[in-house]
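Possible regression after last week's pipeline update?

I re-ran a chain I had predicted before the update to compare outputs. Posting the input and the new output here so someone can diff against the archived version. Not blocking, just want to make sure nothing changed silently.
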Amino acid sequence: MNFQKPFSFFKNWFMAIVVLSLAAGQLQAQTMTVGQNVDINRQSGYQGEEAIAIDPTNPNRLFAWANDVSAGSRNSAGYCIDGGTNWTARFTGSDGWPALGGDPTCSFDSFGNLFAASFNGAFSAILVRASSNAGQTFSTSLLTISGANLDQPTIKAGPGTGTGQQSVWITYQNGSAVVARGAAVTGFNSFGTFGAELTVPGSSSGNFGDIAIGPNGKVAVVYETPASGAGPDTLQLGVNSSGSTAGSFILAAGSVTTQVGGFRLIPAQPSRSVDAEVGLAYDNSTGPHRGRLHMVYTDAPNTTSNDLNIFTRYSDNDGATWSSPLRVNTDAGANSQFFPKIALDPTTGNIAVVWYDCRNSAANNHVELWGTVSVNGGVSFLPEVKISAGSTSGVGLGSGNELGDYLGLDFYNNVFHPAWADDSNSTGNNPDGTANLDYYTAAVTLTPTTPVLSPVSYSTNKIFSLKLASTPGAAFGILASTNLTNWIKVGSVLTSTNGLATFQETNSTGMFNRFYRAYWPLP
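New output (post-update):
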């Protein structure tokens, strides 16, 4: 279907008419397109509590893994090389990992290094390893963290403190406080030594947090405190502004109160319970909100209501102050939404949020996965979409693990990939049918707004320049014609963080009429 918007541009004898052509259906306001649901692992038994990461050096490569509580001392893992459609799944054990106990976490850096962490089989240590082949194997052991009361490890890669460097940090509860440790990354398969534990102030009763790395390597860690009951709790942030692995965390002045405590029982998690599942994401893009820190969390009207909802806030001063809360789910009912996850696209600054949602469950105990995106720095979000094809109940599964404690999400180049627990068997290839959980994913694409082409100049050497305006980080093909019938591709453009791109056509010499159109998506 074509949408045409002609205009005339005169330069001496040259006239150009630009025509916008919208491939694969007419583009309107920015929307999200949900790809097919994919069962990542297709294994018998219970697999849940997921993490997923996209390789920014090749976004077709993804890694995901999850707890496996069916046989013990192993996780389920899978890797993909085609953008999320076909996955090679395995149980850990012959891939460099020893016996594992769960709580998996993972993150790619911009060099293509993949970092991952999990408990060992005895739950007496957190193991940190790296992969140089996008998760097929983990041959490099980076760190072993031993302790009797360890909990909630989360690993994150991001900018480093030096030019051209990256860094990797892990946060966890060590039994006495929430702590973080970091290491410099100077290149592919080139890692520094992890520093000592840095305590996040005020976190002796804190847990269930997250970590984010911002511009120039600064690090923020958030936690929930006292994290021991139904609520209310406080979400508190510590910031290491230097990013030094030997530095210190300073307690941010701003804090957020939530009515969802660390162990809140709801119909969808009657045994395992839920927490506020606070999450962080720094804007590391080159866009207008670079350096902004985003927070997602769960809140409720009071400590007994099952009307849990997902909220976001943002801070432009590293947590000293926060914006007003913005409710992300817009349903009118009083059912539960929980376990939010946030990820920021470093190519655009757009923010994705996903969560488990009971809005369509009469008993408020079956979940679907829903999600949305903000394209304006967290000021507002697009209307949310249902991502999961089926409905899932984790009640009583996994020896009481139910849906676990979290789900997975990553976002790159206008496509986000969540990972969630699913027993709907909507894909038809869960070996257990609907009797147990596998972990699923789907590619959700942020569809760009209608592109607008306009003339810029016609140079004396007969080069015609066009300007295209659309969504930041969107790739468009450019076609040209002399008769509006026969079209040839003359190039492509990628819009910058301001949504603009310029194209120069050098093959228009001697042509009286020249027509152009832009199309999306690229093959």
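Follow-up from reviewer: compared with the archived run. The CA atoms of residues 454 and 467 lie 5 Å apart. Marking as no regression found.
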